[in-house]
Request: fold
Amino acid sequence: MIRVCSVGEIPEGEAVRVDPGPDGVPVAVFHVGGAYYALDDTCTHQDASLTDGYVEEEDCAVECPLHASCFDLRTGEPSGPPARTPVRTHAVVVEDGAVYVRLQSADAIV
Ligand code: FES
Reply:
């Protein structure tokens, strides 16, 4: 697991970028609705950082800052074009006052 930060360091409705993971892929960790979500940081459409996107707290989603595809923070699924491929999600563990990400293997991408 990768330690991201202490609980409370990511304000509600915001995200931090953690890079790189063991497979070299940066991860975006979001704090929304009292929960944490982790996704690959790079949009599946082009090279944009989802950490810099607009968090839609009511939909538990992030809007890509480049072409506005929205990705569900729980599943990584895009809600519409131009992105058509989900971003990979990762498990988040909160333990002993810290936030950790357990990276999903790149081999698990279908
Ligand atoms: S780069 Fe994200 S929608 Fe185009």
